Amino acid sequence: MTSENKIFDSALAYHAGGFSVIPVRPRDKAPIPAGWQRYSSTRSTKEEIERWWKDTPNANIGIALGPANGSDGRYLFVVDQDVLKDENRMPILNADGSFKQMGDIRGCPATLSQTTGSGGKQFFYWAPKGYVVGNPTPRPLINVKGIGGQVLVPPSIHPDTGKEYAWDIDELLRENIAEFPQDALDALLAERATSASSALPSMSKVLAGVPIGQGLRHSGMAQVAGYYLRAAQTPEEIAMARVALYAWDKEMNKSPEPWEERKRELDNTFEGILKREAAKKEAGPRKWNDHNSPQASKPIFSSYANIQAHPIDWLWKERIAIGKLTMIIGDPGLGKSLITTGTIAATVSKGGSWPVDNTQSPIGDVILLSAEDDAADTIKPRLEAAGADCTRVHTLQAVREVRDGSPTERMFSLKRDVAALEEMLTTLPECKVVIVDPISAYLDDTDSHRNAAVRGLLAPLAALAAKHKVAIIAVDHLNKNSGERNSLYRAGGSLGFVAAARAVYIVTKDPNKPERRFVVPIKNNIAKENTGLAYTVITGRNNAPIIDWDPDPVKITANEVLATLESEEERTDTDWAVIVLRFVLSPGPMSAKKVFSECKEAGISEKQVRRAGKKLRITPKKEGFSSGWTWELPPLEDASKREDPPQGAEGNLGDGGNLPDGDGGTQS
What we know:
Elements (H helix, E strand, L loop, with lengths): L2 H14 L4 E4 L21 H10 L4 E5 L11 E6 L31 E3 L5 E6 L15 E4 L4 E4 L12 E2 L10 E2 L2 H13 L8 H6 L8 H15 L3 H18 L6 H24 L31 E3 L3 E2 L3 E6 L5 H15 L14 E6 L4 H11 L7 E3 L3 E5 L2 E5 L7 H10 L3 E7 L13 H18 L2 E6 L18 H6 L2 E8 L2 E12 L8 E7 L5 E5 L8 H28 L4 E2 H10 L4 H10 L5 E2 L6 E3 L4 H4 L29
Parallel strand pairs: 5-9, 12-18, 12-19, 13-14, 13-17, 17-18
Antiparallel strand pairs: 1-2, 2-7, 3-5, 3-6, 4-5, 4-8, 10-11, 15-16, 19-20, 20-21, 21-22, 23-25, 24-25
Helix pairs in contact: 1-2, 5-6, 5-7, 6-7, 8-9, 10-11, 13-15
């Protein structure tokens, strides 16, 4: 049995056992499907598994942890016990050759476990009924993986060591998994609050504040050692800090000195910083504010009996609400900014009627933040072409602050300057809408791929909208995951954008009319499901572009449009792969392995190569039983024929261009 068959059969077996299986990149820990976290709550299907492993036969196997695997309200989670690693990310061994690990995890009942490719241990448990387990790190080298997390399972390959994961005794069966007692689980997770491990800085955080370059090595190593040792409290954490210092030096300082000499310098610096930090700790702990004092945080709450209900105020009835956040997303060049300026801003500024629906807009001021379009040569002509009252449209150009006694100007930041935006709203009491285009330009250093960070950034913005009774419209581009057919997962870098907005619309091309555009709802939490709109971009009287809305709504869904556009992208990719494959094979016959290798260097995936081979009517050949498969361009007269290539064990590229089993062409 080939390794691909072994992996695929194992994936199907895990699915049959009731587990939520997902594909992970070969010899990696990164899941392949975009938005894979949804499989923590909804179990993957057999059809999805078959499709995933057809596309990537040697993918590692992951189990999306959480309620999708459980029953009766129980969640599947894993306690991960890692091993100490050296500066090369290889496990540190004891004298007898065993792996150096942390101590046993007290209170854990015997359960199904596996040994990872790096020598660590992972223990599988059911959480008590109704108990939600996240992904904390209770102590050094011990992680808990719960809902929203995933874990590799046998026969997956570890990315660093190349070794297979292996079950210790039993296989992955539901009856082999023990339930973790609630008292013991409470105790384990409570360690997170007092453990220093969660405070150990990440390497990226350390590097952000450490000077790198000629003549800075010694000051740099002192800073790195200090960063880690200030957080370390146990002998294990101190050992981890030393290993981290080695890793930093090896990665960032390409010194010609022999490693033993460099290591001696690193150890001397480390010991000096260690003594200094120990002396500080002996001087006594830092004094923190008394959380029971009157200055401590207090809850703000009220009874719903004291809250007065009122209907939703609409800017555009049942499409854009006042006091809420709305998002408009789409690829560049489709006219998103024309919608916000030429339709929304222009209509609100003069209190006009909305297109298609013919409902009335309230009249008011508009605040526009635009990071991509010039105010003078782009936005102003568009507003004039659309007939806007420009006295009511305002641009927030920058934020002025005083630094070192001198006034300076900088770009507006949603992280730092919501108060400045509120000050502007106070001076414009009739403001009805704030447009942020694109929102990704105003995130400052917020990680747009982290849900919690995005939600934390957008929450004050949503509160501002409710307080001042304005609609806030955020424009953004689609993320790069063109293969994702669920439109909810195409907004920005995180699902947090879609979650925070009350309504989200996607702008796409009409697959049948390239000059036509669709504006289709992805979600609308505060109104009945409404129809999409369609428009084309035409030239106005001042030669600026304006939108010409179709008089009738459209009933296509966002997912239907994305599925059609994805098919077009696949065809485009295949056409490019045909060009590359024809060039690779132009010198003559070539082994299948070399074909895939050459095409990979040109950025063409194996799947695309197979499709291109089918389109070029290539018939793989095998000279002998022990020899590999050979690819060769057909003669011109054969390539021009319309009939399908010959079928059979040796000559069939198969559905989607799949080769039969053989050297460089294995497909399970």
